[in-house]
Design goal:
The structure holds two protein chains of two kinds. By secondary structure, chain A is mainly β. Chain A is built from no helices and eleven strands. Helix content of chain A is about 0%, strand content about 55%. In chain A, the strands form two sheets. In chain A, strands 2, 4, 5, 9, 10 and 11 form a six-stranded mixed beta sheet that branches. Chain A has a five-stranded antiparallel beta sheet with strand order 1-3-8-7-6, with no helix packed on it. In chain B, β4 and β5 form a beta hairpin. The N and C termini of chain B lie far apart (about 35 Å). In chain B, about 0% of the residues lie in helices and about 55% in strands. Chain B is an all-beta fold. The chains are: A mainly beta, B mainly beta. At the A-B interface, β5 and β10 of A face β5, β9 and β10 of B.
């Protein structure tokens, strides 16, 4: 089955700097890659997603890139703010209506 | 976005008892819901896929007789943890599908 690896497990940045989180997946049939932000004790919130027919997608300060050949995708957050501090999870599935397999998570801390 | 609720939000029970958790899609119909378990500082682990009107599909290593799932209507799935033990203490999160997966707020189960 699908296996998703995520790095780094923790990431600390200064406010205003950029943050990059990387994920790799194993199943070449996966074609939908969402990213979730989860604050302590709360539900995961979808922040951006990408499908395999697209190489990059951007939404204001957040962008995601996908390399299908290498089977990896990355989350880029620019101009980080303290409120970006949370745990971020990548996930992979064979379609946005199929089960999600999550990465191990990255705890991002943005220091003022 | 679509709204998914879970009840209860928090439950404490004695070892050996059973606990039922409800997951509802409030403003849409969901033929498929998913149940995840999340241990502290860990990722979301998919337990099972709940299909309306049919048996749930369990992930490898998840005991179907211990974690009973019922998806009796298009807006309600229930997870019953039977004969709960302290090691079942976890954060249980459901999600329901409508174009994308929307997560419930989670249920924190503590088994004494």
């Amino acid at each position: 089955g699908e296996n998703v690896e995520q790095h780094p497990s923790t990431l600390s940045v200064q406010e205003g700097d950029s943050a990059v989180i990387k994920c790799t997946y194993s199943d070449s049939a996966s074609n939908y890659f969402p990213w979730y932000k989860q604050e302590l004790g709360k539900r995961p919130q979808l922040i951006i997603d990408i499908r395999s027919n697209v190489g990059e997608k951007k939404d204001q300060r957040i962008a995601v890139t996908l390399n299908k050949t290498a089977k990896h995708f990355s989350l880029h957050i620019t101009e980080t703010q303290p409120e970006d501090s949370a745990v971020y999870f990548c996930a992979a599935s064979k379609g946005n209506t199929d089960k999600l397999i999550f990465g191990t998570g990255t705890r991002l801390q943005v220091f003022p | 976005g679509a709204v998914v609720s879970q009840h209860p939000s928090r439950v404490i029970c004695k070892s050996g008892t059973s606990v039922k958790i409800e997951c509802r899609s409030l403003d849409f119909q969901a033929t498929t819901m998913f149940w995840y378990r999340q241990f502290p500082k860990q990722s979301l682990m998919l337990m099972a896929t709940s299909n309306e009107g049919s048996k749930a599909t369990y992930e490898q290593g998840v005991e179907k007789d211990k974690f009973l799932i019922n998806h009796a209507s298009l807006t309600l799935s229930t997870l019953t943890v039977t004969s709960a033990h302290p090691e079942d203490s976890s954060f249980y999160i459901c999600s329901a599908q409508e174009n994308e997966q929307f997560f419930g707020p989670g249920t924190r189960l503590t088994v004494l």
